[in-house]
Design brief:
By secondary structure, the chain is mainly α. It has one domain. It contains 8 helices and no strands. Helix 1 packs parallel to helix 4, helix 2 packs parallel to helix 8 and helix 4 packs across helix 8. The longest helix is centred in the middle third of the chain and has 35 residues. It starts with a helix and ends with a helix. Keywords: Membrane, Transmembrane, Transmembrane helix. Pfam families: Rce1-like.
């Protein structure tokens, strides 16, 4: 719960700084088409009907909100928003930006060791290696979506949906 609260506070601070310094994150699509509206509705429905909402109590609902809403917004604003746009301005080759952000995103998941170490008795190294591998796979998919759509909104939605099924 503390981690979720920290991420919410950091996301709010990040959005305030971004707004103050007029930093472009390519957050929303140029035009909110029917596809985006339908994707948003589907993501919301999936979140609402997730079985843990009905069987796991408030703790399960909190974890679902953390994993499928808070974390995707936080991570996507950083990786497919801020870092992506800054690297694209310097590198000028989107495929290189894709590779760098994908690797950074994978390595970022090593930072979750603090919360994982308390739940794993043995094999922490293997668990963390899988976190990096899964982060790499997520990063590859989300990066391709970012290239295709040119915005973070689509990656936030997809990241949230993937986390519903992959927590």
């Amino acid at each position: 719960m503390v981690t979720m609260l920290s991420m919410v506070i950091l996301t709010i601070c990040m959005l305030i700084i971004i707004r103050k310094f007029n930093i472009n994150l390519s957050l929303f699509p140029a035009k909110f088409t029917t596809v985006y509206v339908c994707a948003s509705i589907i993501a919301a429905i999936l979140l609402i009907v997730t079985p843990s909402n009905f069987t796991g109590g408030i703790k399960a609902i909190s974890l679902l909100i953390y994993g499928s809403i808070v974390t995707p917004i936080f991570e996507e604003l950083i990786f497919r928003g801020f870092i992506w746009n800054k690297l694209n301005a310097v590198i000028l080759k989107e495929w290189k930006t894709y590779i760098v952000t994908t690797i950074l995103f994978a390595l970022w998941h090593l930072g979750y060791i603090g919360s994982i170490a308390f739940r794993v008795n043995e094999g922490l190294f293997h668990v963390m290696m899988w976190k990096v591998i899964i982060g790499l796979c997520y990063g590859m998919v989300l990066g391709m979506v970012r290239i295709k759509t040119k915005n973070c909104y689509s990656t936030i939605l997809l990241h949230g949906v993937m986390n519903i099924f992959g927590r």
